[in-house]
Amino acid sequence: MACSFRYHKLGTGFNPNTLDKQKERQKGLPKQVFEADEMPDSSSYQDDQDDLKRRSMSIDDTPRGSWACSIFDLKNSLPDALLPHLLDRAPNEEIDRHNEDQRKANRHRELFALHPALDEEEPVERHCVPEVPKEHFGQRLLVKCLSLKFEIEIEPIFASLALYDVKEKKKISENFFFDLNSEQTKAMLRPHIQTAAISTLARSAIFSITYPSQDVFLVIKLEKVLQQGDIGECAEPYMVFKESDAAKNKEKLEKLRGQSEQFCQRLGRYRMPFAWTAIHLMNIVNSAGSLERDTELEMSLSERKGSWSERRNSSIMGRRSLERTTSGDESCSLTGFRPATLTITNFFKQEGDRLSDEDLYKFLADMRRPSSVLRRLRPITAQLKLDISPAPENPHYCLTPDLLQVKPYPDSRVRPTREILEFPARDVYVPNTIYRNLLYVNPQSLNFANRQGSARNITVKVQFMNGEDPSNAMPVIFGKSSCADFYKEAYTAVVYHNRSPDFHDEIKIKLPASLSDHHHILFTFYHVSCQQKQNTPLETPVGYTWIPMLQNGRLRTGHFCLPVSLEKPPQSYSVLSPDVPLPGMKWVDNHRGVFNVEVVAVSTIHTQDQYLDKFFALVHALDEHMFPVRIGDMRIMENNLETELKSSIAALNSSQLEPIVRFLHLLLDKLVLLVVRPPVIAGQIVNLGQACFEVMASIVNRLHKYLDTNQDMHGRNSLLSSYIHYVFRLPSTDPNSPSPDTNSSLTGPGGLGGSVHYATMARSAVRPASLNLNRSRSLSNSNPDISGTPTSPDDEVRSIIGSKGLDRSNSWVNTMGSKSAPWGSSPGSAPETMQAMERCGNRMSSHTESASFLQTLTGRLPTKKLFHEELALQWVVSSGSVREGALQQAWFFFELMVKSIIHHLYFTDRLESPRKNRFPERFMDDITALVSTIAGDIVSRFQKDLELVERLNMSLAFFLNDLLSVMDRGFVFSLIRAYWKQVSTKLYALQNPTLESLRLDFLRIVCSHEHYVTLNLPCSLLTPPASPSPSVSSATSQSSGFSTHVQDQKIANMFELSVPFREQHYLAGLVLSELSVILDPDNEGMFGLHKKVVSVVHNLLSSHDSDPRYADPEVKARVAMLYLPLISIVMEALPQLHDFTESHNQWGRPGGPQGAAVGTSGEETEGEGNSMISQTVAMAIAGTSTASPMSRPSSFLLNSQASRQHGSFSAESSRSLLICLLWVLKNADELVLQKWFTDLSVSQLNRLLDLLYLCVSCFEYKAHVVFTMQGKKAFERMNSLTFKKSKDMKAKLEEAILGSIGARQEMVRRSRGQLERSPSGSAFGSQENLRWRKDMTHWRQNSEKMDKTRAELEHEALIDGNLATEANLIILDTLEIIVQTASVTESKESILGGVLKVLLHSMACNQSALYLQHCFATQRALVSKFPELLFEEETEQCADLCLRLLRSCSSSISTIRSHASASLYLLMRQNFEIGNNFARVKMQVTMSLSSLVGTSQNFNEEFLRRSLKTILTYAEEDLELRETTFPDQVQDLVFNLHMILSDTVKMKEHQEDPEMLIDLMYRIAKGYQTSPDLRLTWLQNMAGKHSERNNHAEAAQCLVHSAALVAEYLSMLEDRKYLPVGCVTFQNISSNVLEESAVSDDVVSPDEEGICSGKYFTEIGLVGLLEQAAASFSMAGMYEAVNEVYKVLIPIHEANRDAKKLATIHGKLQEAFGKIVHQSTGWERMFGTYFRVGFYGTKFGDLDEQEFVYKEPAITKLAEISHRLEGFYGERFGEDQVEVIKDSNPVDKCKLDPNKAFIQITYVEPYFDTYEMKDRITYFDKNYNLRRFVYCTPFTLDGRAHGDLHEQFKRKTILTTSHAFPYIKTRINIIHKEEIISTPIEVAIEDMQKKTQELAFATHQDPADAKMLQMVLQGSVGTTVNQGPLEVAQVFLSEIPSDPKLYRHHNKLRLCFKDFTKRCEDALRKNKSLIGPDQKEYQRELERNYHRLKEALQPLINRKIPQLYKPVLQVNSHRDSFSRMSLRKLDI
After folding, report:
1. Cβ–Cβ contacts within 10 Å for residue 792, how many?
2. Which of 157, 1246, 1419, 2018 lies 20 to 30 Å (CA to CA) from residue 1466?
3. Which residues have CB under 8 Å from 268's CB, separation 6+?
4. Over the stretch 824-843, which tens digit does the pLDDT of each residue have?
């Protein structure tokens, strides 16, 4: 009777949201279209790009003004589809209604089906269904015997296989006998063999090994028919003859065959040992595993080294010696190896005196040694082929060791496979589940040395007798091979001429089910005469002995050493043992023991344990009323039965664990029986309840303690849980139970008397077949419609046992065959039953009633106790160690109790009765006491015994969960409340997360009840109920359960955890209170539980979502009502949630405009106790912030330290919590929500909006990579680098430049120092670190994507797309409700602003086309309802909206485009209607487009052109406004936009050429000189591009220029002293800034509508730009410039008295100056390397003959830039078309090939005049504001580059650029060039000055650098180097020059040398102080050289030119000292 609950599968414990379930629920999802996933047709797109590249490169191909062509383009393009009725004027309500219908159509019903299940460990409420009790198997091995061939075939040979464990010295399987003889050989034995039974013809066997190890051998033994001669003689022919010589030895073989035939005729029934061999099993398994295919292994021992060689190809495997052993017990698994075919070629002949097992173990141990003794023996060559493989799951044609067929057994005539019984090496703990009763008799040795008379060829005949007459031998001895199934006798093999033989036979006997005292084993010893002599009989009896089977009622097994009698034993010998000296009998050797034999029983009937035996015997005696009882040597009378019974119960603790486990089911059944039916002894009722309870507790604990490996995660021992689940049943007096007499049928054909409990049964993961007998009704009072009475079960039993089959494979359900519809019930309920059967985890189902059990009861039913009541009572009154024991395993007693309760209710037909009347008061009190004390234990002991308490806590929870199904729910709730109270009291005193976690587990388990929802009374109103929770019958049908409507009550109660709510919805109230307690930020200790508590809620909602009972939307709304308070809980927790928006935008969060107010809040929080957010923040949220009165609450104030000081959630938990929130919002009743929103304060509504904003980011769709077949990535969104450049980059920049970060708050927040979060502290350029850190969650998913199949990836994308769409639609629905609410409230502006913000944010994320069209519809409705909102208050939002719409207008998906164009058109139209001028929208659209174009890389102008055309079409068709100026203005705007688009096309061409791209943007920006807003936009775009490329200095310059531009306007608008005066103020930062002042009042008046209205044209905007500039300078390492920027900022902050900002700034300044100090040399910060690049050739278009100075990153080598440019232009024009000019000489264009493109690249250095050097002192000075550069070219007059000293000239070229570096671009045109030529002597002077400087530097360097110094010295005074100082002196100073013009130079050089020698001397002196003793010699050498040099120079230096000392001519002094006389050529 499986008692099941109809809906049990729907409780969370049984409804895991598994992947397959998810897949099932995800069927039929539509594919959502995302722009992010759309690809342009890449091939054609690429070709266009290449075309563009090859075209001319001119920037000015089309002059900017060519309106005509642009309009022509536009007019000819096609519009997208227009939206119908867009221009109709419909009432707002109707529009809303229409939008809503559209939104609600075709929505996905189950949100959680789209959300991946939480990856938690196995959820705590899941009870795994225990394994069905089944027969035990180890690892199974299939051995097939294929063939056995000898060199000669003269007689039959018989073989057997068995497994041995050498280490344990134990035979670990029974024998498998097989016969591979040919038919004709078998025929030799015909007279002796009856027809062979099919079971004995098996050639394959399945061995089971429970403990596989390296010590297991497969031993093969061969026997042959007994013949004359010892084994050696008989084996000789096998060793001598070879098969190949068969012809030669024909006669000899014939003779041998003839002899064999004679022996077979005469001695055919006897055997003799012949040969044996062994296989080391693990070698096979390991080597088979390592080979490539099914292996054939050959084993031979003939060579000195045994080897395995592969038959097919012997070279594949190296030689592996057979004995190779693998060290230690490596994991020996037999399950996964490849099948191997073995060929065994060598056998050892048996030694007659070494037959015992002891000898065998020695041989086996020896075999593993390399130098085996066995090697030296001559082998018998043969060929035995075996297949060894892991056994299949369900082998066909299998026979059990008892010869029963195991299904599937399709045909009884097929040769079977035998299962071989295992004798496990160590104990195996598995309860008996089948009937098995076998006896193995192993004769071991006999000693007849002292027996008189001839007895040499001895055999033992073994018989199993049930009486003393010879005819009483029973046919129960199993046959071996090729014979009958059963025999009455068995003979052991004969050892020739041995008076004291050893035996190795194993005789297997099938024991009768019931034994009597007369059953015994009889051994008869015979002498067999081998020679045929006259008058000698074949066999002569030479002795007798026996073993009685029972002794005092117990089976006798073990080792026996028996005396042997010489005569037949006398009458009635069988009841005595042969040890007893019977009178008048003769015994061998004076009655000494001479025969050793071992008897082993494998039985599920005989316990073989004295304590168990005694207990069972006493209980049996009670049943049968048989007194007195004999137990052992005692006779127990009825009067002392009670004490004996009690002591035997207590003594059960002493018995061995193994038998206890084997007989566990029976033992527990008997104990239960004694509790329920106290026996009547001598007229007294004896209560054994306490004794049984104690012994049960101790047995259960023993099992737990010693068998801890098989426990589930709740610590339930699987043996016990399967007992409760399948076996336990109440001893019952069911009217349907069969009467005892019908029961006789049970001893059916199987002859199985005894209990049906041991009937054959299904054996695999299924229930025993016999267990279905009474499975009559499916029980749950939630399922009253199934009923019916069972028929009597005996016919079932008969059919099950009668089939004599064993079904191990099919699930037990099938054994019922056609009867699977429950008796008497309608077929319609069959599925229910099936459900009940498969029901996973119904902890309360049961084994069926067993007939024999009933039989034992019907005899006497004196009293009847109820087991659960007795159990509860015993438990409550227990104390001390018993109570402790019961607590340790509380789960066991709880589950027993519950199962007992259910059985009781079922058998007494009380399942329909009202719950209140089901149980007596007494029992309820016991349960209450029990729960209360156990809760007490949990609270008091959780710190000491955590493990115990965890188990106890879960057991209690499961118990209460079960009680909810059967007891009055109000009562169970009172129990839960009692527990709750105790835990809460403790928690109040001691904030301990462990205890809280225990309570969570408890709650989660209780809530996993299948009627959880009903238990929460979702339908009743919130009126305080009369009782804590009246019992609602769960049988109420679903429909009626949800019928009542919500009355208008205080709606807030439904949304808060108010008292009425908690009383009404008790369990849901508990769950939500837990959630709110743990999420409470002040609850410091509970952070660790966030994930846990969220998963409780997630789990519940997910299960409601998939529950078919709640599929109806109205019903779901009711369910959602239980969770309404979740909304406010999540709102409270908002500051702690993971911030998903961060991934969106690199500059910190989108904040609200009054971040300023928030900034101050950090300090004030502490004082405010436990309010969650400080007052200031709250004010800010409420929108009454101090900074700007009209502003709206900030979105994410999460950064203020106020709330962030608490631990925040992980992304995963936040995501789960948010999906729960969305579920509630999706399913709750909209009217209820709307009423509640109306009651919320503005700040709360804004909180909700912030929450929705977060949800948008959280569920944003991440584009999926799909690999095309070639493995190319369709788009590489994979790694961060490619990702960074993709759309997100564009999104981020937009956000930053124009986007939703309102500029003001952006700046404010940045200045508050929040950027510190990014490592570099900067705004720009830190995208990598920021983005990739925050977004790790998504990239984690991607890393796993690599190993998924394409289909999986596509499925994943499908799900993600649907989830993103559904989540956003839910958000949109909620926004609509909020809008409806807000329209009636007074402060709607702030709320509507928030709504708009969320909408815009959602447009900015990756969205599906489906969502966007609804989103745009909502946005249009919003604008039409509240136009003033957008155009007057939320101006920035308007700008934002324009950007979003434009972006969607350029989408590749046409539906998105048509909706976006419609929205944009209506936006303009509304703006126009409000003020007849839509300058604002015009301006904003234009700016947006510029921004879009500037920052986006994959922007398709074709799509945008279509949208513009669509807008034009709307304007033309708009009849209402046809008469106004509106259409013209629209056209105007559209053309303007189109113009910008044309620039875009250009930018596209230069996508790959960064310099060109920046030049183009520079030009566009210049074109907007008159439109400051747009110029600003383009400067920002440039800044973005530079940051992307890490050109931080340039980015900073763009920002400075922007700031200067803003300053110009601010100074025009308002006269504030502390603001910069305009560009002039910025001169110190960069001299280039003045170009921003080109604007004057007459060009633009700042007051005009729409001009300078951008968010940057404010003081805060200016501050923000400067801050960003400072940050970028800092990243560029230009700390001096940072100082200059702050000089402008400081006065502004001082004027605003903003001490905090000032503190931050000074902190940054301190950092900057600190870095300057540390990096003074300049090596640490490299500012840039400069190259002159000239372009020559018509291919370059307008670059031809242009020369630029390029600024490259520091330490760029000439080769690098040359390679880059050559590569770039090579790709564009073709590699053979581009040449780099290698020298730096002036280029003569006439000499160049006109068809090629030439690039000349020269390294240049900054050039400063001498006077400049006074100001440019530091490294920074020398690298900033650079306009002049120089490079030198050596030449000689005859055209070579280099010549001798006296002819070497040098040309210096000085270049001047149009702007100073760093500028807003990285290449600047050269506007001026001059050359200076130095004569040879001037070159020499420069060289010497340089050398002298080097020496001076090296000498005075601090710290001193000896290496450097020696290097310089070596170059100066080392052995005279070619062109060294001496040579210079000799060339230029040896004689006075003839040309007086050169006198000065001569003198200058002479003075240089003077200086030089002095410096050399200083350097030598310095070096002397630095060197160690090892360099003394080197120093001397240097000094010698120096003196030589000095002597040589002496005359030259001292010669003065007299003419110099009287003035020759007036010299005009010139600023440049030595270029005075040089030739100067100016090239302008």
Report:
1. 15
2. 1246
3. 188, 189, 191, 192, 193, 225
4. 333 333 333 333 333 333 33
